[in-house]
Amino acid sequence: MALSIQESESESSRIMSKQNNESVSLVEKDENEIANRETVGRSQRQIIIKRFVKHKAAMGSLFTLIFIVIFVFSATGLRLGPKNGGLSIPGWWKYSITDIDPEGAIAASCNGGVTGCPTLDLAPAFMDDDGIRFGDHPFGTDIIGTDYFALVMRGAQQSITVMLIVGLLGVTIGTTIGAIAGYFGGMVDAVLMRLTDMFLVTPTIIIGSLIGFRYGNFGVVPLAILLGFFAWMGLARFVRTEFLTLREREFVDAARVAGASDRRIIFKHILPNAIGVIIVAGTLLLSGAILAETALSYLGFGVRPPDVSLGLLISQYQDTFSISPWLFWWPGALIVSIALCVNFIGDGLRDAFDPRQRRHVSAKDRIKAAEHKGSRG
């Protein structure tokens, strides 16, 4: 009798568990169906853009990065070409990196008699008698009275320039080598990958230090170009792996049968299908580039005085951190902000391009799915 009751309870539990699983599966199916309705009738580009726009962290980082770039390059102006001549676009900030204001540094003294304190005040009037104000030297000054806001803006310009040039060259070289190795395979693949391995096993900091020591005094653009020639290895391996998979697809065989050349198959058929991997890896390369430039300049092998970069500013004023910590805060905050923005953008692009990522189902979709299940029940 007791055994019969236990079997009955066990059977009832199995039936209830099966019903719950079926209910959960049905709700998940409804959620996916409702989420998939947004992609009906859209092109692949429109789907990718929509997925990226729905990624809040990526969109916030994109707007933040655009604001930083515009703010930095418009503050102290932009010069294209040689110093004596070329195109010069003036900025809206009144000081340059060569202007010295010792009186302003003395006037902006703070607790303990430290001079050159930041004049930026974001506290409202009810919290502070001065209220919100920008002041003559919002980021403070260094020990001789040079405006630190101008120095940080100029340093950010140089660091962003290095980031963009290194990223562009790294993506171009890495994509080309990875595409050729992955498509042709065989001896071509073996030679190119052994070349890539040879560069990979050499520590990047050593290569960068040698380049910076020899060519750092030539300016930021030659330095960035030379660094870009040693920044493509990781991306090349990603692209090669993608090409090894895509070259076996039916559309590639159809292109070969139609008489398409290898060049056309690589650039017109396979490369557009690998663009997601390239873009995502390229964004990671950008964040790595600005951190590498910061490290080299901090060690004294990057941008050289009288020019500045964010890493060089941290290196030059590290001894004053205990008495003037703002000389470390501002360049450090910009480096972290730019690197985080680029990484979040890359994360959003990865989710947008990769259809294998788990589809995001919003709370609104879940409510609709529950209502849809209730109406059918």
In brief:
It contains 15 helices and two strands. The protein is mainly alpha-helical and 377 residues long.
Q: How many distinct beta strands? A: 2
Globally, the shape reads globular
SS element count, helices:
15
Rounded to an integer in angstroms, the radius of gyration calculated over CA atoms is 28 Å
The span between the termini is 37 Å
Poorly predicted regions are none
Relevant CATH superfamily of the domain at 149-353: MetI-like
Q: Main β-sheet: number of strands, strand sense, barrel status?
A: 2 strands, antiparallel
Give me the side-by-side strand order of the main sheet. Answer: 1-2
- What is the CATH architecture assignment of the domain at 149-353? Orthogonal Bundle
How does the helix and strand content classify structurally?
mainly alpha
Q: Provide the CATH topology of the domain at 149-353.
A: MetI-like fold
Query: Which range best describes the helical content: under 10%, 10-25%, 25-40%, 40-55%, 55-70% or over 70%?
Result: 55-70%
- For this structure, what is the CATH class of the domain at 149-353? Mainly Alpha
Could you tell me the strand content as a percent range?
A: under 5%
Q: What is the residue-mean pLDDT, rounded to a whole number?
A: 78
